[in-house]
Amino acid sequence: MNQINTILPYRSMGGWAFDDEDVGLYREPFVAGADEAIDKIVEFLGIETNKIKMTFSKDKFPGHDVKLEYLMKDPLDDGQFYSIDDDNFDLELWLCPALLEYFNKAPDEIYVKIEEYK
Question: Where are the domains of the chain?
Fold first, then answer.
């Protein structure tokens, strides 16, 4: 699996979704707090487009915007709960099982950079 991954989320039906044909995902929605986290990060960064570039890795990389910290496995599903707790954000979110398309197991930390994409 790649060490650094990139997806191109876009606004869809009031939230965020992404496609990644390399792993067979189409219109994969961000839900259960992940959509709200993206909204807050995008607003904080001053991004005003409906499409973004999201780069993420289990390893820290220069220029990342936020760090997600593992909280627990969802007891009702294969998803994972994470938090973002820093000077700018105090958020909890759920990442669906699609996370495992990018990692062998749910990482303890996920570093994320969000950029405007046109």
Answer: 4-116
Residue burial 9-29, b: 16+ Cβ < 10 Å; e: rest: bebeeeebbbebeeeeeeebb
Q: Biggest alpha carbon distance in the chain?
A: 38
Structure tokens given for 100: 């495992």
| Residue closest to 83 by CA, chosen among 75, 91, 95, 72 | 91
Whose tokens are 């001053």? That residue is 46
Give average pLDDT by consecutive 10-residue segment, the chain, 118 residues.
86 93 92 93 93 96 95 86 91 93 94 93
Q: Would the pTM of this model clear 0.85, i.e. be above it?
A: yes
